[in-house]
Amino acid sequence: MLLTYVGRFAPSPTGPLHAGSLVAALASWLDARAHNGQWLVRIEDVDTPRCDAKMSVLMLEQLAACGLVSDASVVYQSQRSALYQAALDTLAQKGWAYPCGCSRKEIEETQALQGHTRERHHAAVYPGTCRDGLNGKTARAWRLNVQRVMNDLKISTPLTWQDQRLGAQEQNVATEVGDFVLRRADDLWAYQLAVVVDDAAQGVTHIVRGEDLADNTARQIILQRALGLPTPSYRHTPLVLGANGEKLSKQNGAEALDLHDPLIALEQAAKVLGLPTMAPRTSLETALENWCRVWKVTTR
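Below the sequence we write its predicted structure tokens.
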């Protein structure tokens, strides 16, 4: 058994928790409890125009109704800008981050001229237009010079890592993603930088989250190495799909959790995770204890 384990659940308050959110919350809570570890909740409200403080309160109430309560004070990304700025300053001083004056339209047009097509749900790969200077453009965003970091730190290409559920993973970030954004053109902090800084600051050792976020892992590992931060263990959980066959989300009409009987919602989440249904009249506390015992055995 690990002596130190810190896990976390980090929702964005753009709407109430739904069935897919609860799968990730339950899995991360169970993994922490199975390791006798600490489970944290972080509100990822760095994208302030899309986030709602009332939703943050509602989310915490939804989690508490399900017996999932943070073991420490809840952290809010919107209050941590100084940490993100310090990280960006470090990267810039090392020559690993640079200002970019390109708009999304310009990036897509450049890629089209080069014969590249953008995959659905994926941003166009940045072609490195401002990597060696703005050439008269006004700085809009800040990007990570991925290949320079890879070269300077002698990180192998493609980057490889082991996911606790999905197995061996790899990605060539330089060619499949490009120099990704650290600070956005609207002056907001990008998800990749904020999550890496916060996980390290909170001492997170294990990340359990939805499979839709697996594609972010390589970028985050590169940032961790560039900032001299530890890399947590990763486990990506199965997704709940909507009627259209795509990941259930607020964008495709996911309904808020019905918590008139929290155990019913939890059992639906547990089923997605391959956990057993509880006997009738099982209490919430007993169900969580039983699932924790099963999780401890089945995820080893």
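The radius of gyration is 20 Å.
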